[in-house]
């Protein structure tokens, strides 16, 4: 059961069915109440019409015995102002709801002449003149038995003022059997129809959600297959519906493509790192093995150089690994101008032009590494001089490193920031490094919210420009 309702399809079907059920109950209740109200109003109108017909006869002096009391077999009572029943339907056996339970008329007292109608009224502030029928009608529910048949009735009470019999009240009833029958029929239809309608709604919702979620199931199956096969070149199917599911499939494929690129980059990184590490390790091992057999042939300077190179390469690889893992830089305040002067110190042919203070936020160690890598790269390619400039450009700190070498071809200006890329194939590893310096510099710049680009220097050669956000004032 829990697995069933753990399905989106089942929950959607249940939710739709519940919503429709609530709507049907509310609508059905409103319909029944409206139907009952209309039928009760119609019955009240019929009862009032019958009462006024009898009142009209009384107003012109029609004797009690000649009144039309048995039309349509409806219960009618005529009551005088003392509450005595003076006329009633012939077959009336029992009645309730009119306030007068008598069904057999009693003889009326002798007439005393005309009565003044000013003492009685048809409501607040309203008196009836002799022969006048009251406008106000009182309506109520009750029951009556006529000729052995008992039914519910809607009773209307209409007052009438007569000249010789005083004020009389006519009670006439209209049967509620039509109202009861219509309400019962509507209720029966609802009790039968609503469950059938809910079943149709549930069935249609189940089919519609199955069709709507079919692409999602296809995406799930394909993702499961990709996970099982570890084949990141595969992609999930994209439906042609241009809806949320299609956008989900497109985003999933974009994620898979990014993951494939990341894994491929990681594989290349591991392969290149293994290749780069193999050379100094093999060289160092060879020197140590020769020294073990022939101590007089030990190249101590070469062993130290290989060890230093190996140490630097290991440090570069560790830094790249931390950057790839999403390590956030420290939030320290660093003077980029002072940092540039410190890195340029002791490097032959390097000059610095910098503003007094250009402060950025980030990791001092990583920013030192960026400037050091840029200066090392510039010194390797410069003919004679390297110029470093640090300035503030609005809310951006700009550090530029220019050399007077051959520059970087336009087609390679993005490629040089890839890992283990060296454009000069004839250059030795000792002079050219492992090809990680610019990749590290670009990654550090991006992690600090900045950019690192290369273009032609005004005097020739390459100009590397590092742009970082200026540190905000305050704590």
Observed structural traits:
five-stranded mixed sheet, alpha+beta, rod-shaped, single chain, 15 strands, six-stranded antiparallel sheet
Draw up the topology in text.
Blueprint: H1 2-5, H2 8-59, E1 76-80, E2 85-88, E3 92-96, E4 121-123, E5 126-127, E6 138-146, E7 149-161, E8 167-175, H3 177-229, H4 244-293, H5 300-324, E9 332-335, H6 336-344, E10 350-354, E11 359-362, H7 364-381, E12 386-393, E13 396-403, H8 429-432, H9 437-447, E14 451-456, E15 462-469
Parallel strand pairs: 10-12
Antiparallel strand pairs: 1-2, 1-8, 3-6, 4-5, 6-7, 7-8, 9-11, 12-13, 13-15, 14-15
What does this structure look like?
- The chain is an alpha+beta fold.
- It folds into 3 domains: 1-231, no CATH class; 244-324, Helix Hairpins, CATH 1.10.287; 332-469, Histidine kinase-like ATPase, C-terminal domain (Heat Shock Protein 90, 2-Layer Sandwich).
- The protein contains 9 helices and 15 strands.
- The protein has helices at residues 2-5, 8-59, 177-229, 244-293, 300-324, 336-344, 364-381, 429-432, 437-447, and strands at residues 76-80, 85-88, 92-96, 121-123, 126-127, 138-146, 149-161, 167-175, 332-335, 350-354, 359-362, 386-393, 396-403, 451-456, 462-469.
- The longest helix has 53 residues, at 177-229.
- 25% of the residues are buried.
- The model is unreliable at 112-121 and 425-432 (pLDDT under 50).
């Amino acid at each position: 059961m829990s697995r069933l309702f753990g399905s989106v399809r089942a929950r959607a079907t249940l939710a739709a069915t519940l919503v429709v059920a609530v709507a049907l109950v509310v609508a059905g209740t409103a319909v029944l109440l409206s139907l009952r109200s209309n039928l009760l109003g119609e019955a009240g109108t019929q009862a009032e019409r019958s009462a006024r017909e009898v009142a009209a006869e009384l107003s012109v002096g029609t004797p009690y015995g000649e009144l039309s009391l048995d039309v349509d077999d409806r219960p009618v009572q005529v009551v005088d102002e003392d509450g005595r029943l003076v006329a009633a339907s012939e077959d009336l056996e029992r009645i309730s709801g009119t306030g007068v339970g008598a069904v057999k008329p009693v003889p009326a007292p002798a007439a005393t002449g005309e009565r003044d109608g000013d003492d009685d009224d048809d409501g607040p502030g309203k008196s009836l003149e002799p022969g006048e029928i009251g406008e106000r009608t009182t309506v109520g529910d009750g029951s009556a038995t006529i000729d052995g048949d008992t039914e519910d009735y809607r009773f209307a009470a209409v007052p009438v003022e007569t000249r010789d019999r005083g004020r009389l009240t006519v009670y006439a009833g209209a049967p509620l059997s039509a109202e009861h029958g219509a309400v019962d029929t509507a209720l029966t239809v609802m009790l039968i129809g609503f469950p059938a309608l809910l079943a149709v709604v549930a069935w249609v919702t189940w089919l519609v959600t199955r069709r709507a979620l079919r692409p999602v199931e296809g995406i799930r199956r394909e993702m499961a297959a990709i996970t099982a096969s570890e084949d990141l070149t595969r992609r999930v199917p994209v439906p042609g519906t241009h809806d949320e599911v299609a956008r989900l499939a497109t985003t999933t494929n974009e994620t898979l493509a990014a993951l494939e690129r990341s894994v491929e980059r990681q594989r290349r990184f591991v392969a290149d790192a293994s290749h780069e590490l193999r050379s100094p390790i093999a060289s160092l091992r060879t020197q140590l093995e020769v020294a073990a057999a022939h101590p007089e042939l030990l190249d101590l300077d070469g062993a130290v150089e290989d060890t230093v190179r190996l140490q630097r390469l290991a440090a570069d690889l560790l830094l790249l690994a931390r950057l790839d893992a999403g390590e956030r830089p420290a939030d320290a305040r660093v003077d980029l101008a002072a940092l540039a002067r410190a890195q340029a110190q002791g490097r032959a042919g390097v000059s610095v032009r910098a503003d007094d203070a250009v402060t950025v936020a980030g990791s001092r160690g990583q920013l030192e590494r960026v400037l050091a890598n840029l200066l090392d790269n510039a010194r390797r390619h410069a003919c004679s001089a390297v110029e470093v400039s640090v300035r503030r450009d609005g809310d951006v700190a700009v550090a530029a490193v220019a050399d007077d070498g051959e520059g970087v071809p336009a087609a390679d200006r993005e490629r040089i920031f890839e890992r283990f890329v060296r454009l000069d194939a004839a250059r030795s590893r000792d002079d050219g490094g492992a090809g990680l310096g610019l990749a590290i510099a670009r990654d550090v710049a991006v992690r600090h919210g900045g950019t690192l680009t290369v273009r032609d220097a005004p005097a020739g050669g390459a100009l590397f420009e590092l742009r970082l956000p200026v540190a905000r004032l305050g704590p």
